[in-house]
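Data availability (excerpt). The following record was deposited with the supplementary files.
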Amino acid sequence: MGESKENKMFAYEMHQVNQAELLREAAAQRLVREALRARRARRSAVQEAEGRVSHIRDLRDLFAHAA
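Predicted structure:
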């Protein structure tokens, strides 16, 4: 025997709820990626405006290593 009409409607409604949740999750992930991209761009703009800051790693390359 087939499913009752109520069972089919319930399954359809559950599918709709699941689909809506997936869409919300995808939108939230997009928002996070956009925020990170904007943060990196802002950081890059600040560094360009102020000039590059030396790191210890860069300073070590300037001096010869002791034998």
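Summary of structural features: The two ends are 86 Å apart (CA to CA).
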